[in-house]
Amino acid sequence: MANQGEPSPSSDPGAKKDFSTAILARKKAPNRLIVDEAVNDDNSVVSFNPEMMEKLQLFRGETVLLKDDHSLALKINSFKTLIIQLSNLRVRLGDAVSVHQCQDVKYGKHVYILPVDDTIEGITGNLFDVYLKPYFLEAYCPVRKGDLFLVRSGMRSVEFKVIETDPPEYCVVAPDTEIFCDGDPIKREDGEQLHEVGYDDVSGVRKQMAQIRELVKLPLRHPQ
């Protein structure tokens, strides 16, 4: 992930501003970064370059919150992120997110996690023993209610969803955290596909993109 520093037409004092695409402009801030492709396959890890970590006063192993319209708690590995993390944030490669220190993240007393039904077809055996237990063992993974994460074992991958956490919202799964996974597999909800079409799939139509984004965001922010 790189710092948001792309030139803008408004950087030229004499340039005429195009307000029809203003909604696409990203605010410049030290903690506003661009999402890049992942360098590892750990759902709970995000990577920064060393210079950016120093600038933001972040440390390896620290937990941070990534924010767009949603929040995501991740542990710093060294800012690159996985497709499944992007799905949780509802952003895509090339989008901007803000990075925030996540203070006082508590160890979880318990978490409730269920598999997504379309990823366990044909799988037999105990999902906890084969997938969840090895995934969380001594990993101290931060999790957030509502997030999806992918666990690989052998030749198969299973997608899980965090249903509840105690303490609420997010926590770190530690060795003493109880992991509950009893219950029927859940169905994937609308908007939870990992390979959705986003704004970055459309090129050369900035005004149309701005109008679409405005139409989408206004009802979400002002439902009344």
UniProtKB/TrEMBL annotation:
Keywords: ATP-binding, Nucleotide-binding
Pfam families: CDC48_2 (PF02933)
UniProt keyword Acyltransferase, yes or no: no
Ribonucleoprotein found in the keyword field: no
Record-linked SUPFAM superfamilies: ADC-like, Cdc48 domain 2-like
Domain CDC48 N-terminal subdomain: 32-105
Organism superkingdom: Eukaryota
InterPro entries per record: Asp_de-COase-like_dom_sf, Cdc48_dom2, CDC48_domain_2-like_sf, CDC4_N-term_subdom
GO molecular function: ATP binding
Span of domain CDC48: 122-188
Record protein name field: CDC48 domain-containing protein
Organism: Ensete ventricosum
